[in-house]
User: What shape does this take?
Amino acid sequence: MEKNDQLFAVLLAQFEQVCMIGLGKLTRPEGGTQVNLEEAAYAIDMLGMLKEKTKGNLPAELSHALDHALTDLQLNFVEVRRQQESTGGDTAKSDGAKDE
Assistant: This one.
């Protein structure tokens, strides 16, 4: 795998991680988990843009990885959004502050 392909794979993994943190499925760097659907949606949108802008220019392996990541993240997003809607959860927090 050439250097730019490796860098693209790392970028893909970074956006996946940001999304999963936003979905509350991974621990935040400052500790704990917290849902932030805007943060998750941003990461998904960035990956969607990358897919559109790199169409036809990626090796099959990276194209497949990008497609898989997008599908997986979108499904997780819908699942978490439905959970938040059914429980009335707050999805707008982004600073790690907890309700008092």
In short: The chain is about 65% helix and 0% strand.
